[in-house]
Amino acid sequence: MLARSANLCRTAYSARIQRCPWTVGARPTVLALTQQPRSLYSSSPKDPAKPASEAKKTLVLPPSYADTVRRLLRRFLPQYQSLAIGKVVYEACSTYPDFKEFWVDDCQLPETFQTWFSTTSLYVWMAMVRIRADPNAKYYNQGLVDCFFRDAEKKIRASGIKSSRIVNDTLKDLVSSFKGTVMSLDEGFARSDAVLAAAIWRNLVPADGNILQTEQVVWYVRRQIQRLDQCAIDDLIAGGFVFEKIEL
Fold first, then answer.
1. Which end of the chain is less enclosed by CB atoms within 10 A, N or C?
2. Which segments within the chain are labelled E, that is strand?
3. Cβ(196)–Cβ(188) under 8 Å?
4. Residues 107-128, buried b or exposed e (16+ Cβ, 10 A)?
């Protein structure tokens, strides 16, 4: 009985082997086993190897996504750059070479904090006039003004005032004074030299009265604004502008 079952199994195995396409005779060959379809070994066939040039591809955003990113950068980047740009522009406004030689010696203005603040306001205003032509003017000018008042606060504290309340009250008064100076200088610049000279006189000469070369100052202001207008905005915010010395 067992011998008969064994014979039936051998017969069935031989018939199955003969039906396989990779067999030669009764036994499969090694070459046929290696050439059989890949689907017999794997249910998810692998793609053929890609060339090395296609293996390393950079990620490229679709045009619509790239335009969106550029719009966001143009909108928000100036806000983050405003303080750094304001610091660069303020350095040109605060290092003018005429404070001691012209404003103190020639115009006989007292060498005080108020004189420094008034004369520096004039240079800051000239830079603001040029920056207003840029689409991002409100960010750049705000950064410039912030640096101006940070420097003013340092000078106030360096003079010996330690009370934060007194410092804050003084800064509030200076902010109001600066706004008035900017408005009066804008009006004089837009109207005539006489109105501009009056604005310079009111904002730079103290109450006790001093000599001020208003004609030279008006000519100097218009000359510097003309030079600023000829300076590219990228050069200005990169620190590529220097104010000239006032010559009598």
1. N
2. 23-24, 27-28
3. yes
4. bebeeeeebbbbbbbbbbbbbb
Residues 140, 82 contacting (CB under 8 angstroms): yes
pLDDT value for 77: 55
What integer is the mean pLDDT of 99-111? Answer: 81
- Confidence band, pLDDT 50/70/90 cuts, at residue 205: confident
Please say whether the beta carbons of 146 and 119 come within 8 A: no
Two structure tokens written together for 185: 């200088």
In this prediction, residue 58 carries a pLDDT of 65
What's the half-sphere exposure (Cβ side, CA atoms, 13 Å) at 6? Answer: 3
d(CA 147, CA 222): 24
Is the pLDDT assigned to residue 2 strictly greater than 90?
no
